[in-house]
Amino acid sequence: GAVVSQHPSRVICKSGTSVKIECRSLDFQATTMFWYRQFPKQSLMLMATSNEGSKATYEQGVEKDKFLINHASLTLSTLTVTSAHPEDSSFYICSARSGQGGIVSGNTIYFGEGSWLTVV
Amino acid sequence: SQKIEQNSEALNIQEGKTATLTCNYTNYSPAYLQWYRQDPGRGPVFLLLIRENEKEKRKERLKVTFDTTLKQSLFHITASQPADSATYLCALDKAGTALIFGKGTTLSVSS
Predict the structure, then answer these.
(1) Contact call for B95 and A111, based on CB within 8 A
(2) DSSP conformation letters of B56-107
């Protein structure tokens, strides 16, 4: 079945540095991918919607200059946390819808395994 | 603003019983509602999707109901097993947009 792969699964970085997380759809094309973050015992909070070949759409309160999203191909989206701080430490999860010809409502959404970011 | 509530943070039941989880929402008219399972430190895994014009959906030991008048979905696991212990998330799906998640209910099934 469709699989979404995230890399790295865990990363530790120093405060002030940048870290990139990759999200790949392995056997389907995803014109749209979504990035979430999740703090312990909290819900998944949507950060941004990533559209292939265009700028990402960010949710209110999410700094687009801090969380850079690039969706260069139909199978790859990346999230770069720039100038990371300890409060950015969280679980970051990407997802993608399968389906033909762009977003089709109700198509199954597949999630990556998530990436644990720890900023020290 | 849109709001999704799952009735309790934690639910403890004995093996063999039926677990019932509740999801309520306000200020929203989803075309679909989805349920996911999330294990600690892992990404969510899709379980079931129910459309706004469907009352009930079943898959093996799982059953989901969707009442758009009450703005509520119920998620049932029959003959529960310890392996069913996890956090279960409901998510609203309006129409091709991203999912909006509830906080989840952590189910613990004891043997």
Answers:
(1) no
(2) EEEETTEEEEEETTTTEEEEEESS--GGG-EEEEEEEE-SSS--EE---EEE
